[in-house]
Design goal:
Elements lengths: L3 E6 L1 H4 L4 H20 L3 E6 L2 H11 L6 H25 L12 H7 L5 E4 L8 H12 L3 E5 L5 E2 L11 E2 L7
Parallel strand pairs: 1-2, 1-4, 2-3
Antiparallel strand pairs: 5-6
Helix pairs in contact: 3-4, 5-6
The structure holds uridine 5'-triphosphate.
Length: 174
């Protein structure tokens, strides 16, 4: 079986502030994609919401307070960002799933056929890190890499809590 890998790409990494850094970032992404495809890897990429999600959620909060409704706004932003990455990979001729799947099982099925599947969030109540882990489970992936601006998985936000503990082993249920 072709080796499968899942990467969660935090929205904060997607948009370097400087436009110069941005084109370098996309250039590196394209090089990496060509290299991975050349090595016969199958890669599922789960994209976070970043700035568009934060801005849109703030906007919606003007009149909406239910967290599941605000989550739907966040999910829409992750899907927008996913579409950007999907189109960048299609543009360089990679084998990329033509749709942005709504579920991790649909993504796992598409990864049977395409070298890259790009998706965003799925349902309210979690973030795209959880989506990546579920995608990895459904696709029987060898690795699931969470690329973000925090070094480990913690029991609480280490930027807010000094006593946050980093976790090195977790079950899916935990
Ligand atoms: P992110 O996954 O980008 O969350 O989804 P985040 O916490 O802002 O980003 P990281 O993990 O630090 O990189 C943005 C928002 O979209 C909603 C949530 O409201 C989340 O905060 N969302 C996303 C969902 O409700 N379900 C999903 O499956 C994904």
């Amino acid at each position: 079986m072709t080796s499968r890998h899942i990467v969660a790409l935090g929205g904060s990494l997607l948009r370097p502030e400087e436009s110069e850094q941005r084109s370098a970032w996309f250039g590196q992404l394209r090089q990496l994609a060509v290299h991975l495809e050349g090595n016969g890897r199958r890669v599922g990429i789960v994209i976070g919401g970043g700035l568009p999600a934060r801005e849109a959620i703030e906007l919606a909060k003007t009149c909406v307070s239910a967290s599941d409704k605000l989550d739907q706004v966040g999910i829409a932003a992750t899907r927008l960002n996913a579409t950007v990455i999907q189109q960048v990979l299609i543009d360089i001729g990679c084998s990329v799933a033509p749709s942005i799947p709504h579920t991790t099982s649909e993504s796992a099925e598409l990864l049977e056929k395409y070298n890259f599947v790009v998706m965003g969030g799925t349902t309210p109540g979690h973030t795209t890190d959880a989506v990546a882990v579920a995608f990895a489970r459904d696709a029987g992936a060898r690795t699931c890499i969470i690329a973000t601006n925090v070094s480990h998985v913690y029991d609480k936000d280490p930027r807010e809590f000094d006593d946050a503990q980093s976790l090195t082993k977790l079950t899916i249920d935990q």
